[in-house]
Amino acid sequence: MEKASIFAKNQDVETMAQQFDFLSGSRTSSRITVAILGLIYLALNHNILCLSSQIQSNSTLIELIICSSRYVLHAGIVLGAFLLVVVGFLLYRIYSSDRAEKENQRRIEKFLGDYKALKPARYLYSDIKRITNHFKDKLGQGAYGSVFKGSLSSEIFVAVKVLNNSAGDGTEFINEVGTMGKIHHVNVVRLVGYCADGFRRALVYEYLPNESLEKFIFSNDEKDIPLGWEKLRDIALGIAKGIEYLHQGCDQRILHFDIKPHNILLDENFNPKISDFGLAKLCSKDQSAISMTTARGTMGYIAPEVFSRNFGNVSYKSDVYSFGMVLLDMVRGRKNIDFADGSQVYFPEWVYNRLDQGEELRIRIKEVNDEKIAKKLIFVGLWCIQWNPMDRPSMKAVVQMLEGEGNKLTMPPNPFGSAGATLASAGVTRMDVNLARRHLPQELAAIAETE
Known about the structure:
With about 450 residues, this protein is α+β, with helices and mostly antiparallel strands. It contains 14 helices and twelve strands. Helix 2 (about 30-55) packs antiparallel against helix 3 (about 60-120) and helix 7 (about 230-250) runs antiparallel to helix 9 (about 315-330).
């Protein structure tokens, strides 16, 4: 009977502990609470039994008073300890809750700071002068303006493009801010901010110390490659991933229309980043009708269909063509431009014929592995420059080709021979092709792509 009573009281202790556990919100505290309440119960129960035995044994009044005093003292000590533990738990809970809330606030502030950093900031022209130290360090100059090195702090450097006041109607500025402000990819230059202060306009980019790819591949030394073939392969893959992101990774498809070595910048580790979106156009991923009033791009890298719809439809495949020409530039080490001078050979056609006939490439190769890399770049480049846009791979397929084994690549169709039958049926001759490379921009109609 006595054991059953003790068991029932123990259950009462467990119930009290669970209630305390619910209030404290700490699961691990329930066991500690059970132990404390158990000790309190045993101590009080011991004193009650002691007092009861004293009464039953007809003890003197003094003994009863002493026993009662001990009971009160013990009860006070135990109750005080219990209250102290409760207060300690409550203070701990308040401290933990406050610390957790501060940690949450810190995380939120960090997120908002990172989110703000992702969006381009707007600067005043006075800020631009301060950032560039009054345009002290000039990095280069182009058709649309000059580029200066600047700093946002002692550790953060930027490149500031100050646009010419007389250059264009602001379309390039709108394209750059509207396009690059939405892009966040490791192989695309990040737009840090911009300035539109009256008639003064400027664009602020992340600073890339190794400048452009053009600087490293167009070498006067035809026997040496400054970066090495493995690094060239990595750069080619990075560019391909960046273009694939523009075509498929954004909410809207972004067509660059000016992929060339000069617009591929290299960071401190020679990771490539696509820059200069002044000629870019946006379209939905399911929309293939590209409306263009004039041809756009740089001679030697412009896809044939951009000049004439006889070659096919203007689409994202136009960027694929430009990328193919960049690959062949990287292999050759010089620009692949076909001038009127008959002594100069058009490299893409020359290298295709040598591969087709199994002849030695006679390019800058020192090791066997170098030749494998060079052949892979050439194969992919020739696939990308097919005259008919329908015959070119997508950039996703290009990335897979560059990542795969080179010996598994198939020889592409001859862009300069077998494709001629298809082009001839459309009234296109080799003279048309040459004219497409040399002529200035001309009027183009809106072209609907059927692919």
